[in-house]
Write a structure and sequence with these properties.
46% of the residues lie in helices and 10% in strands. With 157 residues, the chain is mainly α.
Length: 157
């Protein structure tokens, strides 16, 4: 028997190319991507730790403080928006290639794109779960069709 090394199916790992408009597409990972979820949980713990000493009577904001939205944009740019195609331009009107930093900057500058990415990443995750559920429900073509995949024992009559 041979073992085969194959490229992972993007549907199974939860990432897709999604059209934003006629000219621009983004490669979007599912919102349930493990690295994104870990980073998001870590960011929330760090924010809670930094805010632990404050009360409603003495709320302060310093120059080193960051908005939760900005942190979320950084995480989405790094773990959810994986690539793009189409004319995405910098401040000088020059088309730029994808990078996590530029993706985060795009998300911070454009709330509509931010909301769209969250929505599409949720759809990607739900679609991936649906495809896995459908695959698990199918009988294996390599078996005799038994539900558990085991052949029936032969009688010795």
């Amino acid at each position: 028997m041979a073992l085969r090394i194959s490229q992972a199916d993007p549907a199974a790992i939860g990432e897709r190319w999604v059209d934003f408009d006629k000219e621009i597409s983004f490669k979007i990972a599912g919102i349930d991507t493990e690295a994104y979820q870990i980073a998001l949980e870590r960011a929330r713990r760090l924010i809670a730790r930094e805010d632990a000493g404050q009360t409603l009577a003495n709320l302060t904001a310093g120059k080193s403080d960051r908005r939760e939205h900005d942190i979320q944009c950084d995480l989405l740019g790094r773990y959810i928006v994986l690539d793009w195609k189409g004319p995405i331009e910098d401040d000088d009107g020059k088309v730029v290639a994808y990078s996590p930093e530029l993706a985060a900057k795009l998300l911070r500058a454009n709330v509509a794109v931010f909301a769209w990415v969250i929505t599409e990443a949720t759809k990607v995750a739900l679609d991936a779960k649906q495809e896995v559920a459908e695959t698990v429900g199918k009988r294996s073509s390599g078996s005799a069709g038994n539900g558990n995949g085991r052949a029936k024992a032969k009688s010795r009559a």
